[in-house]
Amino acid sequence: MEENFDRFNFAIHKEKEMVSFRRWTLALTVLALFAGLASAQVAGGTNPTMTCSTNVTVTPTLRGEGFTEQTGDITLVCTGGPIMQVGAVVPTVNIQISLNTAITSRLLPISNVSGATSEALLLIDEPGSGLTSATGSGNTFGPNAPINICPYPTNPLGVSSVPSSSNCLEYVSSLVAGPNAPNPGAVVLVSTNTAQGTTATTPGYNGFQGVVSGNTVTFFGVPVLPPVTAGYSRVFRVTNIRANATTLSGASASGPAQVVASISITGATSLLINNPTPIVGFVQNGLTASASSMKNLNQCSSYTRYAVNTLTYSELFPTAFKTRVAAASTASYSGQINNPVQNIPGQIYYSESNFVQTVPNGLVAGLANYGTRLQAAFSGIPTGVRLFVSTNNVLNDALGFSVIGGNPGGSAGNVGTTSYVQLVTSSTVDDGNASGGFFPAFTSTDSASTGGTPITEIPVAADGTASAVWEVMNTNPNALDSFKVSVYTTYTSNVAQNLPATNTSPAVTMSFAPVYSGGSAAAASSSLPIPRFSPGSIAQANIFKINICRTILLYPYITNQAGYDTGVAISNTSMDPFGTGNQAGTCGLNWYQGTNNPAVTTTPVIAAGTTWANLASILVPGFGSGGPSGAGYMIAVCNFQYAHGFAVVQDLGGRNFGMSYLALVVPDPAANSGRAASDLSKSAGGSGENIAH
Questions:
Q1: Contact present, 11 and 26 (Cβ < 8 Å)
Q2: CATH code reported for the domain at 551-671
Q3: What is the pTM of this model?
Q4: Over the range 450-474, which residues count as b (16 or more CB within 10 Å of their CB) and which as e?
């Protein structure tokens, strides 16, 4: 029988025949795929040992904060091997992949099978890829075959719970290549799960779940049908391996840390592996975050949805922010759906999910719980203070924020809209089936009072903590994305009850979400969410400060020289017939005479409705000696509202000279971002500080 072989270049056929999906990058550059084999009567010229070349489709950058980072697919392109006879059992091998960090692929347990079976998959000959098959059209072998996952992934471990007859053995069969094959009519060897001889119709198992243990994943009982003749290949692809990148985070002078795989083969046949230690990822931190300048608020003022801060989250490399799945349209939440078509071997999906495939027991491999989430954890919030945040990212840093436009829900890969985030109800709540209308999003409760920015209130716990979490709805994998979200506060002043408490500075901690401290989160799990992150590399800042309400009094002329003295008085007028809350506090007296200024003196607590008075000669003896005029001035900072001052300058005994004046009230610099040249709350006709009695 005439010998017939064919070989297909991956890059050529991928562009011609692979299903087109937006935002997906071609996975391979040049790889020879499984081609049809000649009949069992092929004569010499073969290599008795299969040789496999290792390739990593794309070596991705992994976030150093991530426990469950996707590594690059590993492909083994194998050639040569001994001639197999039709009807013979295809020899099997165990393929083990070890990393220099823990493997954290999701565990997907199979009933009656012992071992930590996982979402990590090994695929044979790129099933379902849409590539031209060596067997041509009209059959389901090689790239034409549907993915058929072996239901006994731990065989042949000899586990007692697995019947000895349960296995995924395959048999050598042959068929006649159909139309569109490079050599129609040729007899091609294929693997089947029963001995079908020369009338093969049903393909064998071409997908195997990996069993995870620490930093290794093992694919047991993988059938290896040799492609026999030089120039023809069989492709084994390993996908959905996730790694704990936190142990490798932190760049060095030589560049990002590397995730290195080590490949080993054991079993009934011999495989030689070229480059058995490929690099499958580079690790660097993915997030930088910051808060705008802290705002000073006054206890004696009430605020309603007042903008106090802007939080900024920026990715440190273009694919650090991802949607849950790669969106194929601009429809709302198309990057968050639960049932994506994301199952083309070798395709690059810039999403938190990777190769999505149903496996035995109806479980799903490769699907993340949600897209990248960004968290703001607030602490130290005083009693009576309410917090609000924007439900989406905003453009500006000041009042009157503008919401990013575009399609709410958005799409991954910058499909038809700008990058976008959406406030969600929790850092760990699952997206569910967003395509069916469910997504755990907060809706806006107000926008009229915030310059049009949709906001919602986030609950504050009794311990003064609160949190807000936004999920990435859309992102551009070819650019560095940055998201700003706004923070607002509301509270009612109650100075008499010291509410809200003064000298408090609520803080925010900014990070990816959800955050775990390590432990079980740093290992493979069947229950913990994907993605998940460590608390490392986070930003902390104070978002605003509540200051005590003060009265600043200026006494412009004070002396204690040449037989003169100055009496000063301060009245606390917060007790009045208008219902003002009674306040009490001390006043710090700041003395200035040019040189050798005296230390600050502090009055006793001045109760509401009372007056304190004293003499400069007692408070600061000799005051005025440091200036050419023998006099100076004093600024009193009183820790209560409605302080008023009075001063009397006279000679000793008051026999020849006496004068008096009211102290001037200076606008509080803490409420005006410094001692302003004018008090803008006054009419435009004023000048200077507009201070008055």
A1: yes
A2: 2.60.290.11
A3: 0.81
A4: bbebbbbbbebeeebebbbbbbbbb
